[in-house]
Design goal:
CATH architecture of the largest domain: 3-Layer(aba) Sandwich
Number of strands: 12
Helix content: 25-40%
Strand order of the largest sheet: 2-1-3-5-6-4
Radius of gyration: 18 Å
Number of domains: 2
Shape: globular
Strand content: 15-25%
Bound molecules: NADP nicotinamide-adenine-dinucleotide phosphate
Length: 270
């Protein structure tokens, strides 16, 4: 049997084992998928032990996505531009790093929700690791522009600079977006995990704006509640992105794209 695992700290909350177990059942593949808690400074040893004991692939989550990229012998263009890795394929002679987060978000928006990003204005609130991973795949959908705002303005400017050749992308001071309406608002801060939300005025959205929170479950509630109160009619959390990024990992490891829709429905009904 082939073995896979998700590595992180904390890790008990991870839905990845349930998602991959359902993918395996739906595609008729036989595999095991476990959670591995990694102590700080122990990622290399944990991955090496796993690979040497026959592990075929790993998902990487907080806080190891950047470190994991450095440990791999090869990286895909997506992982290089994201500066992070959430998916490793172990081969006899190499460890290949990939980043499927952005593909997962775009899949959820365009395939699950049936939305087009072409010629749309997108505001991304927050410029951490997740945002670095989603900008490339979002720009590949040819939006009119992506505007980045972040508490630490310098990080937004650095991101805009690194993706300059990929499309129209700018970093703005927080207050300059106050009276600008967007087709999509993507919330990508970690504030929801502590029950907080960024200070964004309702003037940034119109009734047609799609509001997407990368977080899911309780962590998505504060921002989505703000959006509903501000008049948003279209909104969702990031559970679809989570399931879809897992599907792209599964595809890389097993050579087949598993069905996302039934697994997302099952995860929503848990
Ligand atoms: N659905 C999925 O598959 C998926 C995948 C990846 C991530 N996510 C979610 O995406 C979110 C971001 O993850 P990440 O990995 O990018 O986190 P991260 O690298 O830690 O970045 C955190 C972001 O939140 C901002 N922030 C933190 N505290 C703040 C505060 N008090 N006020 C204003 N801004 C604050 C940070 O701003 P500064 O730069 O100023 O510190 C930064 O932009 C998380 O909720 C995570 O769960 C979901």
């Amino acid at each position: 049997m082939d073995h896979y695992a998700v590595f992180g700290n904390p890790i008990a909350h991870s839905l990845s084992p349930d998602i991959h177990t359902q993918f395996a059942q739906l595609t008729g593949h036989t595999l095991s998928y476990t959670r591995i808690l990694v102590a700080p400074g122990e990622l290399q040893k944990a991955l090496t032990d796993f690979a040497e004991s026959g592990g075929r692939g790993a998902n990487i989550t907080v806080p190891f996505k950047t470190e994991a990229l450095q440990l791999c012998t090869r990286a895909t263009p997506l992982a290089i531009e994201a500066g992070a890795c959430n998916c490793i394929s172990f081969h006899a002679s190499e460890w290949v790093a990939d980043c499927t987060d952005g593909l997962g978000l775009v899949y959820d928006l365009t395939q699950q929700l049936q939305l087009s990003l072409a010629q749309k204005r997108i505001l991304i609130v927050g410029c951490g690791g997740a945002t670095r991973g989603i900008i490339g795949p979002l720009l590949a959908e040819h939006p009119t522009e992506i505007v980045l705002i972040n508490r630490t303005m310098q990080k937004a400017e650095q991101l805009a600079e690194s993706f300059q050749s990929h499309g129209t992308l700018s970093a703005c001071p927080w207050h300059t977006v106050l009276f600008s309406e967007f087709d999509f608002i993507i919330h990508a801060t970690s504030l929801g995990h502590t029950g907080q939300l960024p200070d964004l005025p309702p003037t940034t959205l119109s009734p047609t704006t799609w509001v997407y929170d990368l977080s899911y479950g309780k962590a998505a509630e504060p921002f989505l509640q703000w959006a509903i109160t501000a008049g948003a009619r279209h909104y969702t959390d990031g559970l679809g992105m989570l399931v879809a990024q897992a599907a792209f990992s599964f595809e890389r490891w097993r050579g087949i794209m598993p069905p996302v829709k039934p697994v997302l429905a099952a995860m929503r009904n848990r």
